[in-house]
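Figure-free illustration: sequence to structure, shown twice.
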Amino acid sequence: MVAIIAILAAMLLPALAKAKEKGNRIYCLNNLRQVGVAISLYAGDYNDRIPLCKNWGHAWGDSVSFRSDNKWMPELLEPYLMRNSNKPTNYNNKKITAPPRSIFTCPTGSKVRDPSQPGFTEAFLLSNDHVNYAWMHVYWRSDQSHELKKPVSGRPMANVTNPSRAVVVWEMPYWDVRYAAHPKGIDTLMIDGHGEFTRLIPKEYDWYFNHSRQGWDEP
């Protein structure tokens, strides 16, 4: 009898795990779709411009900043969405607990770690206000430099070449496909408001470098 139960459990557990991950991915995509609606509402109030975020997220500090105050995606979209309930009050906590689900925290992506990225730890997510979605502040050029003359942050909606391909928010980890936020890929939000699952390419490393330009200033 015990052996039969063990066999049944072995058969059911993979299916249950797969179903749980599918549910988490749906939850994550719903997060991004709500963010997409908020971006559209923001643009309606600011002369059809994309939010002028300070940079990719709080963890990036003052790096490549286009504004002097500390306004990142959650702060700018709060009037249209909700407050980031997972924003820490103490960034120096020695014991870091897993954040609860929220609109800025994917239940899967917040737990995955990429060993090739030693800096992407619980401490990084704490520093990023437990937001495991990155804002497409500026994109990578093919010469391995950031495109600073035509940033995404603050750009007029009309100056987007292909809105259905231009990713404005994507989730972490996004580097090695083996350690992606979801099995084999990440969820992404396009500036036209639709979210989709983006399958990572095994031969590539760093989705952001390879694909961040698409849709913004190229087809």
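We now fold a second protein in the same way, so the two outputs can be compared directly.
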Amino acid sequence: MNKGSNTTSDTTAGLTRRRMLQLGSGLTAAGLWPCLSAGSATLEGKAVRNGRIKQSIVQWCFELFGGKWNVEQTARVARELGCRGVELVAPQHYPTLQQYGLTCAIGSINMDPDPPFLKGFNNPAYWPQVVQATRQAIDAAAAHGVPSVICFTGTARGTSPSPRANRSQRRRRPPLRRGFKQVIGHAEKQKVTLCLEMLNTGTTPTR
């Protein structure tokens, strides 16, 4: 069989195998794949059956893969599925979630144009930017009833493009806790929980 063939064995009512994999990669993790129709790739019914578990979905999975939905599209589908919220959205999108009657259990920080996890508290050179972004995220979370905000140690790529320089910086880098202390008090004051995602690359112990 030719790789480029368009026979019925490669497609299901117009939905290609490649397309199904693209959709499934994001939706399987969220438990939403069974809700798609193989023929039309449209939603069929609610994913939430009895509401005993408060289900939500993570925005970035749908933004980067498949149909590449924006926040409003994700929110609309989440509501149609019966989900309670959309997670890890930037603060500017909280009003959109509220328009759809959704919540956000954990918000992200805005480090545009970089992804939020690249530059973190593992490099003092980035502390001014990271601290400002984290404080702004804390304030927005408090204002919109979001109980927690994610924060990051940062990666080696966000430290230096040179592996040798990374090793040198890790040896002389101040402990991470000195960086986190700059935002912990503010989070406590605003009654927002900081959730640390500890990436394995380019991090140091917090001792």
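Summary for the second example: Strands lie at 11-12, 15-16, 56-58, 85-87, 106-107, 148-152, 193-197.
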